[in-house]
Amino acid sequence: MQDKIRVAVLFGGKSAEHEVSLQSAKNVIEAIDKTKYEVVPVGIDKQGHWLTGDASHFLLNADDPKLIALNNAGTRVALAPTGDEVHLIPLDEAGPPSPVDVVFPVLHGPYGEDGTVQGLLKLADVPFVGAGVLGSAVGMDKDVMKRLLRDAGLPIPAFITLRRGAGADYDGIIARLGLPCFVKPANLGSSVGISKAKSPADLERAVADAFQYDHKVIIEEFIEGREIECSVLGNGEPMASVPGEIVPTHEFYSYEAKYIDENGALLKIPADLPEPVIKRVQDTAVAAFKALECEGMARVDVFLRGDDEVIVNEINTLPGFTRISMYPKLWEASGLSCTELIDRLIQLAIERHARDTKLKTAHEL
Asked: Is 226 a catalytic residue?
């Protein structure tokens, strides 16, 4: 009988989205096909230590999204290539290395979704789920992302980028973008640090708040329209799910609305849209996925304005996998269960790694 594939589920991390990652990992570990895969949970604490242990005791207050936390009692480990294999090596105590066949990063935000851990996994020569180094990095940086989408001819909201220490002409910003407008840290997700500014004073406060999380801040025009999300899956030939619609009950689709308050938004899955508009949303999502050099998975968020004009808001290369997250829910509505989705993502990672190993790494004279 063939051994199970050992999947290291990597979660937590040094990010303001640490707790969201814990919720996502819990859902992935519960949904993964245990007959096919052996789960090796690897939690990264807020100091950057990698820990592994018994999956059933690895999370504290696992059923409470407000109190969920990583159990720091696990064994500290390091990921290291050893010959033709990759292992988790215990650091604090003697013990055998633990082999890893594929890594499933369920990390959100900096140090997990921005290409940093993807670079580590690439160097370790281990298959991993999701976008590679480049797709992850540009998908994380909203400024670079929007410039690439714009250059690809995709419609985006008007925006201005501010850098720490460069000063800001708030009157000029308001004249160009109008009020209200949205202020966001350039390199963060899950609506952390995002504000809707309705006045000049709001705008200054929002910029100051966003600069707590990043050295670069994005200010975007407010788009009056429906919020539509579409999940994308695949490598060379990606496909799109049915679109879903977010109808926030809060001021906007905030962190609390996404992950804490189950009634924070009405999720319409699938979205009530005519077939031609569904096709336009799906085509736009796939085009954005390709323009940003993504692979594996991503969720593309768009606005639907007026006469069905589709405007790309952003892409999320490691979208939430919680039980109320749109990415898995959209695929479920498209006929792919969470267990089947996780299986497909792992297989895509293995297929890409096999493809990449065929590339030459030395020049033959």
From this structure: no
